[in-house]
Design a protein that fits this description.
By secondary structure, this protein is an alpha/beta fold. The chain has three domains: 200 residues, Aldehyde Dehydrogenase, Chain A, domain 1; 191 residues, 3-Layer(aba) Sandwich (Aldehyde Dehydrogenase, Chain A, domain 2); 47 residues. Helices cover 42% and strands 19% of the residues. It is built from 17 helices and 20 strands. Helix 2 packs antiparallel against helix 4, helix 4 runs parallel beside helix 5 and helix 16 packs antiparallel against helix 17. The chain is globular, with a radius of gyration of 28 Å. The N and C termini lie far apart (68 Å). The structure holds nicotinamide-adenine-dinucleotide (NAD). Nicotinamide-adenine-dinucleotide binds next to helix 7 and helix 8.
């Protein structure tokens, strides 16, 4: 059986040799998932929600081991593995255990005209869904989709990134440990080829998180079977720093926003738009703070930034840095690879040429931030929006009402005011993008609805109160006039409505009395 050897990106040391899932075995995975899903969906929502609490217990009991696994395989500092992945997962489990029964309960739609009838929305599971994940938040991202899928009554085929399969298997382990019925979650191991083979198996929906290029391939392949997709793609997020901002606060926000997880964050602050009046002190202070960041292997609690996780991504930003250097962009600090090639020094670039480079326009996904300036609020909004991505934007200012006004003009899925990045980990708020950052939402009630079909049930309000509808056959003159007059009852003016009503009523009664419905 072919295997994949997963390695610690800080040292290159092997972690585990993991068997690859042969693509030809996928039909068996899907068959098992389909039969497990029937049993799982028949369970009450409350009971499925209770499983999430068992899962939370299993997660907490094995937290230290999971933190070590995440830091070893992905390279992020243990503190980030704990907060951004494990605590955020416990919080998500709590939110969905508590709220899913309410969110997915039947909902009544108030009737406008047909007062004798009622409509309910009834949510039901999609079936077997595929979760295809990236490596940068190897635990939280797939786990969030998995728990939402499960509580909604679906079975899941989960493919972790080929860069972080060991963590993917840990997710499977804790789900097994929590007593989840067999085969409602199955983890398969492999690269993009396996991802494509999963799509060919016609899952009922694909929840894909990854790059724009792969997202397009996923959507194209899914279109062959009309399989719906949720796409959580890349970002090139802008932070707007207004002239009244507290510089210490603003630079600390920019520092964490751009450098946490070594910038390997879809919502990383990659573009910093600073008002020209405060550009100089802002850059100086941010530079000083960058100099104090400590890089190193993640399995110590005394580092801030880990190594580069993905060689593929390293090639992307090295090319961007090279291009920026060739265009005489000013490197305020950083831009150098360590001698072992495992770390890129935290990098800040600026200068008038910057906006014409890929480093400013395209996703970098590394510890790099590009600074540019603006003179007016309109210019800041225009510059922030002038990008193909639309995931998150942040605004730093003391003037919250002005920030809110700006927020409402930004073409993104989330705007954070005086905060950065972190809402991506909240259970109760929606996460997702616009433009090339994808579509669909995850987390929150809105995210949970992505995991269900909706069935509209329309019925008599009182069991015996139903009759042949006046628009049924045969079509007759009184019927025609009645409905034509009904249209006038939609007029804006109450005088027109009142003038019409007696005619309408008279015609309608004639129609009912004289013209029998077929
Ligand atoms: P990627 O697109 O290279 O891979 C993502 C996943 O897709 C992997 O599991 C991979 O094996 C699989 N895959 C590759 N080719 C496939 C195919 N043809 N069919 C099906 N699956 C296929 O992305 P990555 O490098 O793992 O992750 C980094 C990207 O993810 C960045 O662009 C980042 O912005 C994005 N991301 C977005 C969010 C978000 O919430 N919007 C969150 C995290 C990461």
């Amino acid at each position: 059986m072919p295997t994949i050897l997963t390695k610690n990106p800080a040292s290159g040391e092997p972690i585990q040799e993991i068997e690859l899932t042969p693509p030809e075995s996928l039909p068996e995975f899907f068959a098992r998932a389909r039969s497990a899903q029937k049993y799982w969906a028949a369970m009450s929502l409350r009971k499925r929600a209770d499983y999430l609490l068992q899962l939370r217990e299993a997660l907490i009991l094995r937290a230290d081991e999971l933190i070590d696994a995440i830091s070893s395989e992905n390279g992020k500092p243990q503190f980030e593995a704990m907060t951004n992945e494990i605590i955020a997962s416990a919080d998500l489990l709590t939110f969905f255990a508590k709220n899913s029964p309410k969110i997915l309960a039947d909902q009544r739609i108030p009737m406008q005209l047909m007062k004798h009838r009622r409509s309910d929305l009834n949510y039901w599971p999609l079936g077997v869904v595929a979760v295809i994940a990236p490596w940068n938040y190897p635990f939280l991202l797939p786990f969030a989709d998995i728990i939402m899928a499960l509580v909604a009554g679906n079975a899941v085929i989960f493919k972790p990134s080929e860069i972080t399969p060991y963590i993917g298997l840990k997710i499977q382990e804790i789900c097994n440990e929590a007593g989840l019925p067999p085969f409602v979650l199955q983890t398969v191991i492999g690269s993009g080829e396996l991802g494509a083979a999963i799509i060919a198996q016609k899952p009922n929906k694909i929840f894909f998180t990854g790059s724009v290029a792969t997202g397009k391939k996923v959507m194209e392949a899914a279109a062959k079977n009309l399989t719906p997709v949720n796409l959580e793609l890349g970002g090139k997020d802008a932070m707007i720093v207004l002239p009244d901002a507290d510089l210490d606060y603003a630079t600390s926000a920019a520092l964490w926003g751009s450098m946490s997880n070594s910038g390997q964050v879809c919502a990383s602050v990659e573009r910093i738009l600073v008002h020209e009046r405060i550009r100089e002190p802002f850059v100086q202070l941010l530079k000083q703070k960058i100099q104090k960041l400590r890089q190193g292997p993640a399995l110590t609690q005394k580092i801030d930034l880990g190594p580069i996780t993905s060689d593929k991504q390293k090639a992307v930003y090295l090319a961007q840095i090279q291009e920026a250097k060739s265009k005489d962009v000013h490197f305020d600090i950083g831009g150098e690879l360590s001698s072992d090639q495992r770390y890129l020094s935290p990098t800040l670039v600026s200068g008038p040429q910057i906006e014409a480079t890929a480093l400013y326009q395209e996703e970098t996904f590394g510890p790099v931030a590009a600074i540019t300036t603006f003179k007016s609020i309109n210019e800041a909004i225009e510059k922030a929006n002038h990008n193909r991505y639309g995931l998150l934007a942040s605004i730093i200012t003391k003037n919250i009402s002005l920030a809110e006004e700006i927020a409402r003009q930004l073409e993104v899925g989330t705007v954070t005011i005086n905060e950065v990045v972190y809402t991506a980990g909240l259970g109760e708020t929606p996460w997702g993008g616009v433009k090339d950052s994808g579509f669909g939402r995850t987390h929150s009630a809105m995210g949970l609805y992505e995991f269900v079909n909706v069935r509209h049930i329309h019925k008599p309000r009182i069991s015996w109160l139903y009759f042949k509808s006046p628009w049924w056959f045969p079509y007759t003159p009184y019927q025609f006039v009645s409905f034509r007059l009904l249209l006038n009852l939609y007029r804006r003016s109450w005088i027109e409505k009142l003038k019409t009503f007696p005619h309408f009523l008279w015609n309608f009664l004639q129609f009912i009395k004289l013209e029998k419905r077929l």
